[in-house]
Amino acid sequence: MIRTAQAMGLLTVAVDANENAPGLAVADFGEAIDYSNIDAVLSYCEALIAKGVPLAGVSTMGSDIPHLLAIVCDHFKWPGPSLETGKWASHKYEMKRRLSTKGIPVPRYALVDDAGQILELWRKWQVEKVIIKPTDRAGSRGVRIIETAEEAKSAFEYAISYSHNGEILLEEFIDGLQISTESIILGEEAVTPGFADRVYDSMDCYWPNIMENGGWLPSSVDHEVREKISRLVENAARALGVNNGVAKGDVVICPRRGPMIIEMAARLSGGDFSESLVPLSCGINYVRTVIELSIGGKPDLEQLIPVHNKAVANRYFFPPQGVLEEIRGLAEIEKIPELHKLDIYVSAGDLLPEIDSHARRAGVFVVVGNNRQVVQEIVDDIYRTVEFKIGGKWHDASPCAGIE
Description:
It is a single chain. The protein is of the alpha+beta class and 404 residues long. 32% of the residues lie in helices and 25% in strands. It is built from 13 helices and 18 strands. It has helices at 2-7, 22-26, 38-50, 66-76, 83-90, 92-101, 115-125, 152-162, 223-239, 273-282, 286-294, 330-333, 372-385, and strands spanning 13-15, 29-31, 109-112, 130-134, 144-146, 168-172, 178-186, 189-198, 215-217, 244-254, 258-265, 311-317, 322-328, 339-344, 351-352, 363-369, 387-390, 393-396. The chain is globular. It starts with a helix and ends in an 8-residue tail after the last strand.
């Protein structure tokens, strides 16, 4: 996002609590400020404006902070999410309530205070499984699926241990293909250039935790289903007050009721989706579009028509728990021409935790090719080649590899 803005001829300002965050070094102006300290962020911006830096807008990629962006936009009267949108998009219960009020299909949901309420709602809904999550966390933190009554108490305690506000949401769990989307809303116009199948084929290994392993572009759904999902997420975005901006949707296709909204974020995605997966697959860059919207521009949505259609996959590394001694195989896979990206988040000497949320994964890679079969073969080869030495033993880091 920073580099795209600079390529557009814009000055960039970045804040991050981590003084070593790469964006602070890349941006024209950068300061190690925790963005949750909104007063400090506003003071920094005001100081730059006083020095003649012509600030004109704000945006984010990956950070689930629409409520903070809304405060900045409201303070400076910049384009962006309203305070109401910020509230709806950062609180999972308020989001579900707003969507259902506006007629947007969502799984059944309710706030719960204890295991007794979980069991009561479960019986009332008459569904096979339910899922529990904190209302104010992201990245699958504190999320668990509940299959038996005996699991209700421990699942509630697990969720509450991750919660900041003490509010816990229960939903019916819907088995079905999940889709990630990203929509640009421009008044009455809308387009959904981001559209990918989410990969959960190894979820049983981490049960009852939810563990996604990247995604596939292009999606396997047909044109009719894609159009139906696109209309759904665009309507959901508007229901949350996103009338000129971006909205990221998580959708599940229920076998009986059709596509339903799991969650929606009023921001650009992280996880490489908008930054590389869609550009590699479709040849378009809607990060630029979002930047234009954030400074009051009126982008041409015709620029978001795909120019090609390549198979792209992002996948993650899942090493077992323990002290990391060494990694091997990285030099070999870096020679693969179809490998677009390789990031390892850990290094020798690190204590690797149990992988119980998306935040615990040890690295990511992105592969692009002419079709899914070719890309899948390369993905499999990478998982066979890269190994992590832990406790004196070598392990591959494919999903389930470190699960006893």
